[in-house]
Amino acid sequence: MSYDYLFKYIIIGDTGVGKSCLLLQFTDKRFQPVHDLTIGVEFGARMVNIEGRPIKLQIWDTAGQESFRSITRSYYRGAAGALLVYDITRRETFNHLASWLEDARQHANPNMTIMLIGNKSDLAHRRAVSREEGEQFAKENGLLFLEASARTAQHVEEAFIKTAARILQKIEEGVYDVSNESSGIKLGYQRGQGAPGARDASVTRNAGCCN
Ligand SMILES: Nc1nc2c(ncn2[C@@H]2O[C@H](COP(=O)(O)OP(=O)(O)OP(=O)(O)O)[C@@H](O)[C@H]2O)c(=O)[nH]1
Ligand SMILES: [Mg+2]
């Protein structure tokens, strides 16, 4: 299917916070109650429509376990957006956010758009991190923020779509330099330009960096 832009995302955060479930809910509208530990990296994709523009999201779901951290790091580069996820019922997953951001600062494009997600909002009775704390952390670090539930699907669409809307806004503001492939943004094949089948050779419009 043709698209105006392709945005690459990564999903990061501690093991068990629900990264794979958020992706599955977004791509397949399903919930997986059993923890299927991600080994290395998994991949998903979906089309979205932002302000009438078709945009393809290509999403890398990384393993949260410490032993996979070096593999995860190799996926930061080339991502335009990141969903940084913690579990509102497990305080330690919130405490580790600073270390995830540190990794992102070292390995990602400096302008990568990051959406902080407090997942498992359906388990409010077991809450260990208040919404205000999540909001505050996001504000201090320049992140977008939502509480969501991969189980009920609350705010799952919004998390992926608001991130895309922010990236699109940055493109329109001219934040990107169009020659850098590592920005995680690709310009879609324009009908009428180039030979049939030339889609893969379409201009890689990258944004000098990154947002
Ligand atoms: N109640 C509830 N459970 C959830 C939610 N999201 C995920 N879970 C559960 O949390 C567990 C871990 O979910 P995963 O998506 O596999 O976690 P992950 O972050 O991908 O973990 P790693 O792959 O090890 O990094 C599973 O048992 C899920 O069913 C949610 O929103 N609400
Ligand atoms: Mg996983």
TrEMBL record:
Keyword GTP-binding (UniProt): yes
GO cellular component: plasma membrane
Bilayer topology: Lipid-anchor
Compartments where located: Cell membrane
Pfam families hit by this protein: Ras
CDD domains, per database record: Rab2
GO function term, MF aspect, one: GTP binding
Top-level division of the source organism's lineage: Eukaryota
Main subcellular location: membrane
Gene3D superfamilies named in the record: P-loop containing nucleotide triphosphate hydrolases
This protein's UniProt keywords: GTP-binding, Lipoprotein, Membrane, Nucleotide-binding, Prenylation
Function: Intracellular vesicle trafficking and protein transport.
Family membership: Belongs to the small GTPase superfamily. Rab family.
Protein name: Uncharacterized protein
